[in-house]
């Protein structure tokens, strides 16, 4: 990759930002497996870093035409009480270092207001990362603890790579599904196709793509070519909500990259990956299958350089356990299927989607981005089939490699191939969204 800054300019960066950069493994890291799993060889025993993301969301708050209620899709999560609001989306403190040349550790606490810290409808900060990595075996590093599972490239990225305030719908809905209290005696509803209704008081938040378990991974360089693998076994569920990680899961990813230059999270490369993830969530005393798999491609060239550019594409398919969030929050006169999550656990269920993104730096600091996101949920179930489409325009100002301000406008549509009065009314009410966010490293 290019040199991100001339020497004189680097010396002018704020010391606090340099301190944050010191704990990113820029010297040896090759990819996200390395960045999240291994500290730099020169890192001391103990180091602290972190970031905060103050965010602003603005949308019209359009009511549907049938019940005259604001659909949840027009409300800002995780609280779903307002359409226009400001909040601290993420606030994370991270501890990492090397115990010796072969053992490194990484722990991170999340204190922002998001799906991870919203458990049973209440705010609860928690440990979002917590693992040790053992590098004694050549070609097979071992990571143990609370791990970001190998899967789609979009789920593995670090905070400095987020290019939009609102995440891609297909990645979020298929790979970061809400956890549920497996100890509750839910029963399927025959009149709704046998799916379960889950009240909001029983939702345990999302897990941020992390699971407790063990992962083998490593990367191998031969000239500009780099091959990387990661394979994990663990438990599917929510650690933050207590003893809810009681179902097995497996995940694996293979990727091949042609490295164009540079190091760490800002390198230039052409990369492709293929991955698979399987879990067996438990509900009402029964275990269900949850399968996800996909491919992704990316081209990154020239971070924070004039005409630096990026191209990304991800394709994801899912089967088995798939949920459909509630159309509305609790309100008088609304039936339970409208205010409860509808969970479809059967193996016959399907969902798929893709995301395509382009980005271009106009200067060292200004970057523009475009993204199209498509998510087709439950095409096997005509009554519940929904197609989410989002076209996003983004603009970023990078102060340093880790601190920036983002603004984006999101054109959203919800298509219902087989509408009824309720689904048509909700679909017609979907708002566009304007959002801004500052990402500040410390």
TrEMBL record:
Residues 1-29 form the signal peptide. It comes from the Bacteria. Gene3D superfamilies: Porin. InterPro entries: Porin_dom_sf. Keywords: Signal. This is Porin.
